[in-house]
Amino acid sequence: MKKYLAFGLWLLAIGSLPVGAQTLLSLDSCRAMALRNNKQMGVSQLKQEVATNLRKSARTKYLPHVSAIGAYVHTSEEVSILNDRQKGALSNMGTTATGALGTALGGSVGQIGTVLGQMGVPAEMLQQMAGQLQQGMATMSGRLNVFGQDIVDAFRTDTRNIWAGSVMVTQPVFMGGSIVAMNRLADINEEMAVNSADARRQSVLYSTDQAYWQVVSLKHKKKLAESYLELVKKFDHDVQRMIDEGVATRSDGLSVSVKVNEAEMTLQKVDDGLVLSKMLLCQMIGLPLNEEITLADEDMENLTVVALQPQLDVQQAVENRPELKMLSNSVDMSRQVTNILKAGNLPQVALMGGYAVSNPNVLNGFEKKFGGFWNVGVMVRIPIWNWGDVAYKVRASKGATAIANLELEEAREKIELQVNQNTFKVDEANKRLAMAQSAIEQANENLRTANLGFSEGVIAPTVVMEAQTAWLQAQSQKIDAEIDVKLSHVELNKALGTLY
After folding, report:
1. Which residue from 82, 90, 309, 416 has the highest number of Cβ atoms inside 10 Å of its Cβ?
2. How far, in Å, CA of 371 to CA of 292, rounded?
3. Distance of alpha carbon 297 from alpha carbon 30, whole angstroms
4. How far is CA 207 from CA 196, 214, 284, 459, in A?
5. What is the C-alpha to C-alpha distance for residues 500 and 487, in angstroms, rounded to an integer?
6. Distance (Å, rounded) from C-alpha 230 to C-alpha 389?
7. Residue 7 — very low, low, confident or very high, per pLDDT cuts 50/70/90?
8. Per-residue pLDDT averaged across 351-371, rounded?
9. Partners of 166 in beta bridges
10. Taking Cα atoms as reference points, which of 225, 333, 336 lies closest to residue 272?
């Protein structure tokens, strides 16, 4: 019940806000919104997902792969095991055999008939025996012809319509180290994607911090310009009264009027710059450009500045900077590419096994049914001669690795210089802030004494205007010094790789 009551009160509070209410934003909220809105951060996230999937894909190269193949082929002619002469001989083997047998037995049958006639066998019986012999020869010839044709038909392959399929399992055993190098390359690529996202994140935070403190600086300068305008207007009013009383000259009044115009122009310039800076910040954090926003630090009288003494730690920068990590990843990736190329000169061993089917079934006399068989084997590939192709590629890859190493060393030297420069900037910004704070006290005292002397009539208006200008300059320098301290710490953290 308490939860519902609190939710209802929250809705009432939201509904009671005016339509044109401004959005109050802190530095942390601006950072979070900028990270969510930045398109390149989304690209970096997608690149990480791509690299992760590539790494998972590389892991599958260690595992056996199964593939299936199916095919259908129609041909205009079938494969023939027998030639045309053999087919004709087999189809007419009965006719050929009985003809040869008749020729061989022709003389013998005539002699047997003569002998039987001399022995007194009747001629009708001899004719009957001859007819039966001819009939038997004809029957044998037909049967042999049919048998020969059956043999010809049995040798037909009927391969005009061929169905074939196979399932193959391949297991790599040794690929020259290319699979191991490929997996290491995928791991490095994934790590590089993470480092790239980290670099993009720090870049977004750096840009957001700069835009945020730019708005805060301009808002403070706008307040300063408004205060200065009120100050010179009041002074102009006092001078005009003194002119009316004959104490001051008209020239003094014109000089003060020029200062009023200058103050108004300065206020207008600062106001325009503030509007543009807020538009830039809104674009970064994903708000409409005309959104009315208020920053948490823009209405503070004095910015909270912690004047920390920077510690020079180049080793920390070398360990944390994502740019150096990415260059180191490039060196490692180049080395793995070299290992992959070296595998081209090494033997490769793989186990194979599978099952193949075909129709016609070649295992049973081209039977019009599916039939298949299992098979296992070992495949070994040994490169013998390639005219130095792999050696040239390996040398080129080693050259690329050397280039990446030089770029990495150069980046380290530049980062060391950058850390030293930003450490000096932080120390210098702290000193400028201390000097600006001291100058504020002097400018306030100078303006107070000038106003007092002017009111007593012992100081000329030009002296008061000089004191007002000095006061304005001191206040502006204080604002710049406070913002410089903030930004110098941001730049130092970015140089050290600790901007989070």
Report:
1. 90
2. 79
3. 12
4. 17, 10, 9, 48
5. 14
6. 82
7. very low
8. 88
9. 69, 356
10. 225
3-state secondary structure of 248: coil
Sign of torsion, CA 15 16 21 23? negative
Residue 270's Cβ-count burial label (10 Å; 0-12, 13-18, 19+) is buried
For residues 298 and 281, is the Cβ–Cβ distance under 8 A?
no
* Separation in Å, CA 394 to CA 175, 328, 438: 17, 20, 66
Cα 313-315-319 angle, rounded to 5 deg: 125
In a 13 Å sphere around the CA of 35, the CA atoms on its Cβ side amount to 16
Instruction: Please give the biggest Cα pair distance in the chain.
Output: 191
Token couple for 304: 């909270």
149-156: long-range contacts at Cβ-Cβ below 8 A with a sequence spacing of 24 or more? Answer: 149/90, 149/91, 151/90, 152/82, 152/87, 152/90, 152/91, 154/365, 155/80, 155/81, 155/82, 156/78, 156/80, 156/366
Please state, as a whole number, how many other Cβ atoms lie within 10 Å of the Cβ of residue 33: 18
CA distance 282 to 437: 32
- Residue 181 sits at the vertex; the CA angle it makes with 388 and 43, to the nearest 5 degrees, is 115
- Render pLDDT for 419-471 as a digit per residue (tens, 0 to 9): 999 989 988 988 898 899 889 889 999 988 988 888 777 788 888 888 888 99
Say how many C-beta atoms besides its own lie within 10 A of residue 5's C-beta: 9
- Please count the residues of the chain: 500
Q: Which residues, listed in sequence order, are joined to residue 351 by a DSSP beta bridge?
A: 171, 378
Determine the Cα–Cα distance for residues 130 and 114; give it in Å rounded to an integer. Answer: 13
Q: Are 316 and 496 in contact (CB under 8 A)?
A: yes
